[in-house]
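Exercise 7. Given the encoded structure of a 151-residue chain, write a plausible sequence.
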């Protein structure tokens, strides 16, 4: 074949082949995301205050559960959030590690810096994390244009 024919064929093959290769790689990666298990927690592990689990939120060690806002999150109109309630004053976090508590957590000056969650809190957190994981996986399409819709 002459160069006059070969060059345009190579350019056309590259123009078609490269996007096709990228699309196949994207579909493969999306499928591996779908196969991956969502993050989970268990009641035998002591979690540090403000540990984050996508879908479940932030762990509040003194309360042994996950909440939508970080411990001591501040909203000027409502105050400081902790344990599912709004408070006028901020509770100061620990400065130095304390001794382990009966529940496997650490106390410092009356503040629990880590603890084990209750079985009910673990169940709620894992269900929320699984739901979040299922709803955030990209499904199909070049460029990720196909997304789950909620009507």
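Solution.
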């Amino acid at each position: 074949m002459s160069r006059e024919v070969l060059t345009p064929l190579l350019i056309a093959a590259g123009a078609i082949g490269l996007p096709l290769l990228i699309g196949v790689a994207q579909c493969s990666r999306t499928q591996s995301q779908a196969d991956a298990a969502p993050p989970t927690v268990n009641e035998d592990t002591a979690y540090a205050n403000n540990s984050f689990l996508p879908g479940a939120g932030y762990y509040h060690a003194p309360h042994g559960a996950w909440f939508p806002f970080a411990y001591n999150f501040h909203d000027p109109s409502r105050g400081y959030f902790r344990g599912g309630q709004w408070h006028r004053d901020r509770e100061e976090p620990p400065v130095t590690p304390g001794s382990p508590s009966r529940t496997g957590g650490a106390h410092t000056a009356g503040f629990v810096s880590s603890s084990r969650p209750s079985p009910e809190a673990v169940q709620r957190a894992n269900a929320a994390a699984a739901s979040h994981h299922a709803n955030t996986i990209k499904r199909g399409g070049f460029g990720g244009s196909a997304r789950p819709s909620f009507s």
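Remark. The two ends are 57 Å apart (CA to CA). Students should compare their own answers with the one above.
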